[in-house]
Specification:
six-stranded antiparallel β-barrel, alpha+beta
Length: about 150
């Protein structure tokens, strides 16, 4: 095999080593420019979405029925709503935000106007953002809040 790289032959076209080297140089510059652009664009896109939400705490100037100041903090854990109720068979259909579906046989609590009024046992099946639960104690109405704590 000839190791003379002064000429590169492809079919009928002959490119001298000088032209071949300049072609590779321009390809390197183009590749480098494209790579830097992709990294810059992906870095900018990632930084916009990577925001950490601070803990939310709101202090009301009013007082509750006992004369105490009220402090509201962001809820942690599962939180959903009762979408329909079958009181004869004692089960409810629950709706949760995407990514917050409870596990089967999980115990959930029903709240109305901030007061706990019932307990539910998730039985499934789950479809989309909805699941089914049996009423263990208390009652439930459409629109009631459901939480795991």
């Amino acid at each position: 095999m000839d190791r003379d790289f002064s000429k590169f032959v492809t079919g009928k076209t002959e490119l001298t080593f000088k032209i071949w080297r300049s072609l590779l140089g321009s390809m390197r510059i183009s590749f480098l420019a494209v790579t830097v652009s992709v990294i810059a664009i992906s870095g900018c896109a990632r930084s916009k979405n990577a925001r950490v939400m601070p803990e939310t705490e709101v202090v009301f100037s009013g007082t509750n029925a006992l004369g105490e100041k009220m402090i509201v903090t962001a809820a942690e854990g599962l939180s959903g709503k009762v979408s329909s109720v079958n009181s004869e068979l004692r089960f409810v259909v629950l709706t949760f935000p995407i990514g917050q579906m409870p596990a089967e046989h999980q115990l959930l609590y029903v709240f109305r106007n901030g007061l706990k009024i019932g307990e539910l046992n998730v039985t499934g099946p789950a479809r989309g953002d909805s699941t089914v639960a049996d009423i263990v104690t208390g009652e439930a109405r459409p629109g009631d809040e459901v939480r795991d704590k």
